Amino acid sequence: xxxxxxxxxxxxxxxxxxxxxxxxxxxxxxxxxxxxxxxxxxxxxxxxxxxxxxxxxxxxxxxxxxxxxxxxxxxxxxxxxxxxxxxxxxxxxxxxxxxxxxxxxxxxxxxxxxxxxxxxxxxxxxxxxxxxxxxxxxxxxxxxxxxxxxxxxxxxxxxxxxxxxxxxxxxxxxxxxxxxxxxxxxxxxxxxxxxxxxxxxxxxxxxxxxxxxxxxxxxxxxxxxxxxxxxx
Length: 232
What we know:
8 helices; Spore Coat Polysaccharide Biosynthesis Protein SpsA, Chain A; globular
């Protein structure tokens, strides 16, 4: 498989309460964006990484990491856009058009299961699109006004989306074109395929593949990194 990997790192991450944008917060001394890039480099032998960053971060935060990012296979760095979809589109435009599979990943998920992501790539090559996801672990309540429960949702039908998400390039380009024509904006990448009526498959992810959003997530991330890095 020949992959174009789009690594999205342009968000601000205000809920984390950090003095630096989330992608550059260090877990055991390694910024999240670099941890994610190193893990993505384990997927296949033939790949490129296109990194989308906030333009304000280029000099102070990205430049000091450039050599390490390049060593992970980062071929180009682009400015992210106003939305996730805009950032993904800009990274896609900078990628090699001859690579048939596009992998999109959030820099704030540095602990995704590599074997499952490889499987998602294989399924996307076959069916068009695939994503990592986990079944909802808790009972789900529907609330009308933020206070009063109006029903219980069957959690057997609910999965929590993760990244990486993998889409065949031809399908992604067609889905983006349709989204532009209709003014549709998806909250993740495969939602563009769903909107276009394209098939999307689920691949079982892992609860350790958390998206680092809050200070509590950082505590878990430090523990996971300690296990992966070989302890203290």
